Amino acid sequence: MKKYLILATLLGSVATFAQNAGELHMRVRATGVVPMEDATIGAIGGNVSVTNNLIPEVDFTYYFTKNVAAELILGTSKHEVVATNTTLGNVDLGRVMLLPPTLNLQYHFYPTQKLKPYVGLSANYTVFYNEGQGKGRNAAVTDVAYDNAFGYGFQFGLDYKITDKMYWNVDVKKLYLNTDVTVATALDVTVPADVDLNPWLISTGIGFKLF
């Protein structure tokens, strides 16, 4: 009798482990990108100011088990950048576009039938493009270049079940991201800068179970 109880327990554990395994989910969210910027600027000193932005974002989550999943986030963000309190005053560097695909490894909890909180660790690679564009760029700045960079971070969030196929999501991520910036000027002087962006990504939206 005892061996049957053990077998039943093992089968139940396997069934619980396998639940959600192989599922693919998609979320459509609005994401606030809030940089917590800081910079070391060569020669002219000062710091940097980077604007916030609100963007649409799509992500896909694949469940390896009921609890363990991987999430891929896709979106692009535009920011205006100003070098502040330099020896030349405030220098408008124009805008920069960021394409930061981010992969999160998540662990999901199931405290109730409807509520599913989770935590995760993030790996990120950010591509910078259209650097220094925009009407606001200082006329003395001839070019601005940002190095693409790897970043890392963490996340926490929750899903609230609406139907078997749809749920509401709230998500917060913190990314640690550093890039080297080179500013070329009309005086043939090149100014390097070491910039920490370190943004918070605050999201909410609707998720769907695809299969």
From TrEMBL:
<keyword id="KW-0732">Signal</keyword>
<dbReference type="Pfam" id="PF03922">
    <property type="entry name" value="OmpW"/>
</dbReference>
<dbReference type="InterPro" id="IPR005618">
    <property type="entry name" value="OMPW"/>
</dbReference>
<feature type="signal peptide">
    <location>
        <begin position="1"/>
        <end position="20"/>
    </location>
</feature>
<protein>
    <submittedName>
        <fullName>OmpW family protein</fullName>
    </submittedName>
</protein>
<dbReference type="InterPro" id="IPR011250">
    <property type="entry name" value="OMP/PagP_B-barrel"/>
</dbReference>
